[in-house]
């Protein structure tokens, strides 16, 4: 605490009045308050003890955050909820055949990593919201454990029914692995970190590098978040004390089979003993043996996972600087503060950047600055187990947020590398101007220039690059914003409440993948391998600070809609390609007989024909096409008029425009929500049902086609077309107030 | 020898006169003589001891082959040559820093593998024709050690000058690795077998599977065969006793730096200690640590390789059944019999199929069959060190072969799987009819049907398939024959002498990659993991037997030229695509500044811009296009006339056609040969200068463009155009004799 106290006294007060400054001077004044030393000190303090939900150190962190905000002049309140949050009682794993060997348990400390040797009170490796159970069975390796993997198994006559699956991390979200395993009849699920992904395949292993060491384990949540995130007992409503609750047994997002994450050291003990046929080449990981499917009785494991399932209190820290002229328009900014163990990278590297912003905004406030709109800074609790803090707060304040929040800006783990911003595309030019203005700490170039250079350099060297992003980089144009899926606290804002959102962070050059959700996600790891000196923490504060100030002070929201229409057009094009490819594939598949596979596969390793599937019909997308055309026209009209007249609007015109643009993204919400998951209501983006984190765009239509629910595809096309038409019409109405 | 004697007595004589039989009955009579038990016995005997060049067991094998052929009624003679053939005196390797550890030496025996425990007289791991030397230096990992790898190193400021490189096997031919290393200034070269390629990445390791065990080493030749194969001292002439010879020092195909192949157990001792930057993702192999470039002084190895360089005698066994009516037209068929150690798969799995054919052909002969053309069966010595036996024989008999050989049919290692035939495309329909007629042992379908099914099944499952082969499979059309590069004894025939050639073998489902050129390439390995029961050895005999009988007895050669013209058209199309892609790439590269890479690469792992290269101009390919058009027309005219009238030719017309087709492929030879390597003279195919084994088609033109020798590209286009025009005109002249 000594170091912290020292740096908290640092920082020079802003003496000029920040209210009468130019915007550029205000940004410079803001920047002058951002201190990497301060971020280092907060990071060290907040990651000094286990800070998972309801832990003493997590509560101390909340208190520290609250105290700091108050000192900086913010109005602070807590938003507490009572949620179902399991903590592990048993996480026992034993290899019982062909030899007995105890596996699992807490990760070992490393001399070079201070906190790894202070594990009192730390959670052992486990996954939250698995289904308790005590099972013994033979083991089948299922690759990533995603739908295509079970098709591959079926074609080899391999069933997981009554067996324990072992899946490697990657390929899709963690929680899908046990969910699909239980649907396939498995009795238990192990998930391991293959070293190809985040061990020696990516970096030297910690402490020699940032890569995951052999005994490192990735904790996490396996709650069925693609159905709905947040407290499993209170879908759609805030988990207040008196909320009406489901029981754990009836909560659909709590899984049914015992599940445990394990290290690759432990996985080796199991996988290297498996017999059966050779796995396909793309199922092989980085362990030094030949991967086989297993499934025979000679390899048996005993898995016993039990949790304590009582309700726990979680506490969001909500801080406000009230707006002067538009108090009921909110710029909401958040990052979570709960971790799995010490959480230096995830989430504290983002949270300390948020604290720097808050301190600087407080300093501006103290020097007289009064933002037009209200600024709401949220430090979320309980993101790790399933976005609980943010989700319950959004659900609890849904109507008010829909009415008042003009944007939600999120960050989470941050590290060395390039700026990545995903989210609502009407903010693309606004984001691009900020990326042009902020310097990359490593090169001194703008973060935009660095991002473009990286895309072009990587693409020339044959590395995958998003085609639109690369094309923009080659033209020197603004980088497109990718669609938001899930995996952090923007989820409830954009997907449930229809509030435009941005997710902002630097990354791509650090080695935090190797410490992710393990005891090694520590101050020592982070400051050595991920963002030494927190240079990129400072850059993140500067980027988001500019966003917040710009949005809070703008006379009218800094939006342009052509990028949004362009994105919608692109998504529709992808769906057309999907349909075309599916139809071709269906024709080819229908021509592949069992006999062709009898002849075409190795008789010692026979492979059946592809699983039969209903043929994809032609899908009539004309209504959606027309709606997007309408949106394109409306966007062009708005953007052109704003380019010509935006700077000369009268106060009355500004007020009228503000009013008509307010809540325009509500038009994107489907009243009924998406099929199987009404909580998700945005027709333009969602996390995929079978990707978990990864975004699906025009998800109602796309997933219906992907999953061959062709009636749904027709219905969802209509819903999406209506939503985009409404959006276009609201935009046209807004344009009408312009001179 | 007991088992061998027993099965040699087996086999029933053919009692009917094979001369008056129908072709189908003759093939059935041939098949009746093929015995898998016999092949097993020969394999066991011939792989019972080390059978490398000049070893006692190799000489015994030659004597056995000669004896068998004589017993079967063939005329046999030896064709002996005196060649430069180095045998290892020292293959010492030691890690000297940061710790001392002796590496290298002979591979260890395995209890389950009988011959691996009888290594007296066996060669230790080494590579033939490396340059003797005694060097100590630091080590740089160079991936495959091919040109692109050195560009990647240069972009990171890493030089191998004065250092020892360690390259993994794969990516291109073994011999290119030390050759390029010495050109880059390296003082030594280690080549190791990464387990990703042929160890646990491909199969369980021997003896649990066929995969390469940790201590397994791939021997081989590193002679500069893309320049010329065969005896380094006698390029272009037979290495007879009195031939005029180069000295070893002036022989351009003998390398200059000491080179040693090592196991992945030994490679681990070196690679796991290397420091320096992280290698690119596609440089990573399957060893369980993070791959780094190395190059710093802390890791040092001492390498001392010395050979005994005296001339040795090699001995081809040449057996003939003289033709009855066309004695001066030869059907030549060969397989080598020398191995690196026991050589069960390579080469004996092919040689025992050749022996079965010879026995069956002898039985037909004894029953009265007299083929129209002469049949020449060659068992080559000294293929392993550099195709010496076949090359010297071709060079020694060049004029006679050019005048008489209508085809050369080669085999080498054979195993479970599908039939692969590559070579001169005028034989495509002939090969296809045989593939339709011979049964696949595993499924009972025709080998053609099985091959088509495999292509289609694999392609649907996303595995790479040759586009032309797949398209043919989907239409049920004949499989195209791929172009021949190098790697076996057809090389001198097709590339130097202009004799149409086929390379024939089954494969793709065995695990012989894991024993390749090691002591584990044994009877035990082969009969367990590669071709149990030699079912595919029998199939190979049946396929090639039909080829030999069909070619020897045909009234006119069973050729059709449209497939050849189609192949030429395809190759030209690929060259056009190459030029287009290069021009695009050149434009993009020219726009990539050093500054773009300063911004675009990770500052902790900086990467320079791509190596600057001369821009690719538009290349005028019109002459080649016109020549191929002429060839297409000539081929169509010939094929149509043969389809209409081929079955009704008079004896005089047949004789005239035979005469005009004889030696038509001589038209493909460039008088000057290919740039840098005049020994290679075929304008349509060659092994690549930088692939070693892999074929380059229209090589003079293609490699000139690839290597940016644009003046050469223009000249070679003219040479290729003239050759194909001549070919078309000879074909038109042949067509003219048809009614």
Radius of gyration of chain A: 26 Å
Helix-and-strand structural type of chain A: alpha/beta
Count of separate DSSP helical elements of chain A:
23
- Uncertain segments of chain A are 1-10
Q: How is the quaternary structure best described? A: homodimer
CATH level 1 name of the largest domain in chain A: Alpha Beta
What does this structure look like?
The structure is a homodimer of 739-residue chains. Chain A is of the alpha/beta class and 739 residues long. Chain A folds into three domains: 2-84 and 312-424 and 483-553, 3-Layer(aba) Sandwich (Aminopeptidase), CATH 3.40.630; 87-308, 3-Layer(bba) Sandwich (Glucose Oxidase, domain 1); 562-736, Transferrin receptor-like, dimerisation domain (Transcription Elongation Factor S-II, Chain A). Helices cover 38% and strands 16% of the residues of chain A. In chain A, the strands form four sheets. A seven-stranded mixed beta sheet of chain A has the order 1-11-13-12-14-16-15, with helices on both faces. Chain A has a seven-stranded mixed beta sheet with strand order 3-2-10-5-6-7-9. Chain A has a two-stranded parallel ribbon with strand order 4-8. In chain A, helix 9 crosses helix 17 (535-553). Residues 1-10 of chain A have low confidence and may be disordered. At the A-B interface, helix 13 and helix 19 of A face helix 13 and helix 19 of B.
Tags for this entry?
Transcription Elongation Factor S-II, Chain A; 7-stranded mixed beta sheet; disordered N terminus; homodimer; alpha/beta; Aminopeptidase; about 15% strand; 23 helices; about 40% helix
